[in-house]
Design brief:
- The structure holds two protein chains of two kinds.
- Chain A is α/β, with parallel strands linked by helices.
- Chain A has 13 helices and ten strands.
- The radius of gyration of chain A is 19 Å and the shape is globular.
- The model of chain A has no long low-confidence stretch (mean pLDDT 96).
- Chain B has two domains: 80 residues, Methyltransferase, Methionine Synthase (B12-binding Domains), Chain A, domain 1, CATH 1.10.1240; 119 residues, Cobalamin-binding domain (Rossmann fold, 3-Layer(aba) Sandwich), CATH 3.40.50.
- In chain B, strand 4, helix 8 and strand 5 form a beta-alpha-beta unit.
- The two termini of chain B are 29 Å apart.
- The mean pLDDT of chain B is 92.
- The chains are: A alpha/beta, B alpha/beta.
Amino acid sequence: MHKDDQMTPVERLNGFLTGGDMDRILAMPLICSMSGKAAGMTHKQKRATGASEAQCQIANYERFGNDLLIAEYGLHTIGKELGSVMGDPEDAVPAIMKHVLDDLDDIDKLDFSRALPENSPDYQKHLECVKILVDKMGQEVPTGVLITGPFTAVSSIYPVEKLLRATRRNPEAIHKLLRACTDVLKELHKGYIEAGAMILFCEPIATGSIINPKEYLEFVKPYTIELMDNIHANNGMVCYHICGDTKHIIPEMVKTGPDMISIDNRVPLALAKEYIQPYMPLVGNVDPVETMILGTPEDVDKAVKECVKVGYDCEHGYILCTGCDLNGAVPLENLDALMAAVRTYGKCPVTPANWGE
Amino acid sequence: MADKEELIGKLSTCVVEMEDEEVVDVANEYIGDGYPAYDGIMEGLVDGMNKASDLYDAEEYFVTDVLLCSDAMYNGLDVLRPHLDNADAGGNQKKVVIGVVEGDTHDIGKNLVKIMLETAGFDVRDLGRDVPLDDFVTTAKEIDADIIALSTLMTTTMAGMGTVVQKLKEAGIRESTKVIVGGSPISQKFANEIGADGYSANAVGAVKLAQELVGIEPDAER
């Protein structure tokens, strides 16, 4: 347990889910792609094996006492397993250099079985990470897997601009790809849930910054509902995150049935609270760039305070989080400051007295 | 023979309504009737693209719509451009070098900016994505660019933008080359920190910014 806390994350989460005691609000900053930093590893070293990935998560937890460990299955892996060519940067998330699918007439040449658990080396690697984390730390802190949503999975196979055009010119083909990706994701989710992880369902390509609400309804929502249902049928828990501006689709995101929704800093937390709090916990939304990278510890403290002031009385609870995945340029002192601020302003029972009102 | 204004109107409508095949027929009819290519481009195709940009700014059109409109515009341009008089074909256009900085492959935003800059009459050299930082400077020097436009979606690559500004100083062309930056993690604060000349939160703003920086009157109300 972190020296500045009175409960373990598991005890705290249990209190959160059952309405029992908590020492402070939950804090789950997205320490995912930059998790190597606290362990002295580059992203390449971190992603080498399940063991190295687990080691990074544990090192972060030991320093910060955050409430969730994260394995990074990531956004591109389905495309990678099908044959998209990836970069291999030393200290960044590998990008897709060449998508495996160039022409929608070639969809039937794709072999989706390559992304299934039994055939996917990357799935296995992150499963190994989950197993180590659950085994070593499961009594104390929960584990999640950050994994692509179906629309984003399609964009790892077929380039985004072509995908967007095809939603108008050839929607049947896009539905075919979505169908195949959804079926694969069901198996991936099942495997990770059985290993003890919750699902961090990340769907950046469905952001309102790219697609309109009608496109979300047609191409994203139905497959998402299937996946959420599948997660629950397997007794799993899921946090739904779409990066960027999701103002116009939050009510639809709610309807897909996740256990909680995580909001990026582009959406005012108070607005998200209105849409989300009647149904489920709210998660978010300290600015991962302006505050966490470019800000001082004082800026971080202020941002956490503002978030807690809005979120603390959410009907279904509130979890402090960063608006999106953090990057390696984040000074670790800012994460120290974030957790310290959560322990101050989020100390239970949370009242305005916590911030001097 | 159809009325010139009528055909120009149709060209514009084809762009706004993403008719990337019909626009070719209309453009061929327009040129076949002997009307000047320049007017067809500026008052027809570009007019349509500007309307599409306005709709994007108003959040009625989204990225998909703008891409499809631009497809129609470029198809029309393919027909009309070869018929431009030498005088109209440009030569005193302001030049922009644009690209996504080294290490980043996200290029939708950059492509939207490129489309809108070309629509506004800039001569755009698109270096693509994952562009080595030196290439921005060498290309700017080679074509005597007025502006370098840098894009990134990722925080890991943001610092590269500051490096480009630095490299321009070292190459002795910082004064003559404006630098504008954009992308989700970018902000005015960041732009100021690295000494860029401007930041825009979206593609429509990027065009106005570019126009201001090179001393063109930003387009009046359309």
